[in-house]
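Molecular record:
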Amino acid sequence: MTGTSSGNGLVRLNDLEAGRSKDNDDLDNHFDPDADPSDPFDISQTKNAPPETLKRWRQAALVLNASRRFRYTLDLKKEGEKEQRKRMIRAHAQVIRAALLFKLAGENEFVSDAPVASPVDGGDYAIGLEQLASMTRDHKLPVLEQYGGVKGLSGMLRTNLEKGINEDEADLSNRRNAFGSNTYPRKKGRSFWMFLWEAWQDLTLIILIIAAAVSLGLGIKTEGLKEGWYDGGSIFFAVFIVILVTATSDYRQSLQFQNLNEEKRNIQLEVIRGGRTVRVSIYDLVVGDVVPLNIGDQVPADGVLITGHSLAIDESSMTGESKIVHKNKKEPFLMSGCKVADGFGTMLVTGVGINTEWGLLMASISEDNGEETPLQVRLNGVATFIGVVGLSVAVFVLAVLLARYFTGNTEDPDGTTQFIKGRTSFDDAFNDVVKIFTIAVTIVVVAVPEGLPLAVTLTVLVYYHLYLRGIDLQVRRLSACETMGSATTICSDKTGTLTLNEMTVVEAIVGKKKINPPVDSSLLHPSVVSLLSEGVAQNSTGNVFVPKDGGNVEISGSPTEKAILSWAIKLGMEFDAIRSESTILHVFPFNSEKKRGGVAVLQSDSEVHIHWKGAAEMVLAACSGYLDSNGCLQSMNEDKEFFEAAIDEMAASSLRCVSLAYRSYEQEKVPSDEESCNDWVLPEDNLVLLAIVGIKDPCRQGVKDAVKICMDAGVKVRMVTGDNIRTAKAIALECGILSSAQDVTEPTIIEGRVFRDLSEKEREQMAQKITVMGRSSPNDKLLLVQALRKGGDVVAVTGDGTNDAPALHEADIGLSMGILGTEVAKESSDIIILDDDFASVVKVVRWGRSVYANIQKFIQFQLTVNVAALVINVVAAVSSGDVPLNSVQLLWVNLIMDTLGALALATEPPTDNLMHRTPVGRREPLITNIMWRNLLIQALYQVTVLLVLNFSGLTILGLKDDGDKAHAHEVKNSLIFNAFVMCQIFNEFNARKPEEINCFKGVTKNYLFMGIVGFTLILQIIIIEFLGKFTSTVRLDWQLWLVSVGIGIISWPLAIVGKLIPVPKTPASAFFVKPFRQCRRARDDA
């Protein structure tokens, strides 16, 4: 397991820091029996993959431009350096801070969204920046006490500890000037010139540049400057265009990555200003702010604890030590960047931005965009295979052309032998050899698809910015985008995901009486109202703000807290008055394991009350009596069945049931010192039931349709909730997760405790049958995820709480909630659903499938060009000693198929057809039988037609008797080049719909695709008609243009006929791979 849950509900997330456990590696091997351990590119999941696995595939990849190929994969060396730097900063934070500030003063190497203010000591405040920073940094408790504790410090910072600072812009500005802003300087992103520098470092392009330089020199020497610069200059120009387009594409992707990273960093949090709770960006936090802290939050700045109840902080991200630190008056200092592991409290901000160790850490390490995805790794394997074939073909072509040349078998178009031993000058021979070598290198450029692995990144980024702006998503891991398309099951929360998260108390039972309406206090005895008000006000992490001008009351907190607070206010509760009249002695924060939370309160008359609130049936089980509506204590023995039936009735109506109970306690038994009080376990026996409330949270509109879409797409939706099993059943029926009430039997619907008590093997068998799990703990969700993955499922999990982090981390795709989700949950997730809506989860599935489909379209298109270009040049070279497609022409084709092709096909919008297919399996071949069929038909057609033109073109075109043989040869080759490009342009339409007859469906709505096709066509016309000197082509008359278009357009009806040919279900790769694996296993067994 990646996380454990202690008895008090504390999740030990520090285990996640250590990385992936051996158990998880075994888990991956278990569910993937088809995995080939000897294949470095056979990685089913890169999430949490060990570094050794990631190193293997990098070392196995054939790469001619590593800086570009691996640009969006994890830089393993840099990751190691980053960890070392973190450790160094922790050890020498202050020295580094001083050096960094000194460097910042002298250089302009850093940038920030907001200017990093130059702090000035003193000013309007009784304490300066350095005094504050020194106290917080070194945890100087005596200094804090010297200032009069947190209360004295708040006076020096002109902050009201209860109401916070004012929302006055002038006051906020003064604080930023005096103490700095909560931003930190970040290293500038790489400039466009850096991308240009990287793009030209491709080994093949360097060789072409050298060849172009040699050709240029020889051409000028032999033919003079006016005519001699064309050959070399045209190659130079073509290489420059390739470099420019590549660099521009990569630079734009880099900017998009920066935007994604910025979205991740901009955390929204709650602060108390002017007495009300408001949400602000973490960047807007200032010294003196009062910030509420709840379980799962990130500490947004350095600060001092004001009040805290069982507050435990995970400081491992800053100290490197895997332990939880409990905060109290003796240990009040809080460090920015740490996580709240348990409890709740409020803090006074004393340090922000670069004046915190977290800010210093963030300023010193640049965020790495790298992260490989399983598809990226597999594409590197494909690129390596194609590259080896292409390199072999290029070497073969080079050898054949050189052999034919030096044996006198290569002729000019007019029949003149190019090389005659003893008669051909060295300069002419050398120039011819350079041209032959250039052709071979260009074949490598076309054959080695360096851009293929980058197609994943390009597809995801373009897709994100074109189609997902309307969907409330934040992508944290790009790999989740493609993995989501393979999801076979979604384990969804109920509250806020399937439901609206708009909770209202609609039923209330006090005593044995149903209060109707539930807010009618006249039906209750004043003593009951008083106890209920006290319990709701004190046993709550929410807050109530009553405007002085008599406006609407503002309630903050979780949806459940807000519903109960709103109900109590309508009963007559005065929140502030109750909190001021009594003192909280100890708090047991709400615990998702025990499903309840409690508080001990000392009243003004020295009486102690202990209030509990939580899951109705669990609190009821601890009650020995109840107060009736007249305020009289009654025994529970005879009436417990009545309350249990009432809870069942509420749950059957889809209501969330919450019980409120209390008990009196002797003051003498309350621990007197703070340390003992912190360890005090609140008694939870002999409770007196005050009320049972039913909270309505209606299903989201459209959720039933969304669930049906998933079911039709072969994705099973499972509900995993902490609610009552009957409430879960009712909501599942309402949402369409369960089809009918008659089918609802165990194990289709099961309680978490039943599932966790099973053996591991039984859980694996049971998991496949479970549709609804009620009263589940976060650990139950983790066990379910592990069991499903062992069964071969690709699991997506939604979660919002801190304790959901292990399940989010373990799942193939972790989906955290943007509204309800804690920072710990968000950091453990891969995608954040900002609107908490299940319909958005379905859109992510659709998006993931579309990303995968678009990449397959691009692969089909690129491989068609690869196969056709290679075969045409090889056959022509072997048979005639010449190639119809020269270097400049092949570079242009390379540009069409690589960058422009990826961009055009990566932007195809998702179609409804995608959600009518079954999910793509982990072992599904990247190149399917359908793709092989389409690819081979088009490549065979192109090769056949163009080779016929190459060998019989002069006769077919009536140029055999042309007096100018060289011109006739140029016309033929120009037609071959033009027809070849036209084939690619028309085939780009075929690639849009590999399985559908109508490849034009929706094409006019994809403006980028149409724009790229139009741009390619216009450039081709310009090349043929006006740039003949550069591309060694001549102008074609309108008849030959019609021939070129005709050859290209035939690919459309050919594709339709091809799609009618059935293909076997067994992947073609299996016929080739299986014998090798059998041989290998036989050898291993021997």
Q: What stands out?
A: The chain has a mean pLDDT of 79. The first strand starts at residue 110 and ends at 111. Residues 45-103 form one domain. The chain has five domains: 45-103, 128-176+283-365, 426-446+853-1073, 473-499+700-836, 504-696.
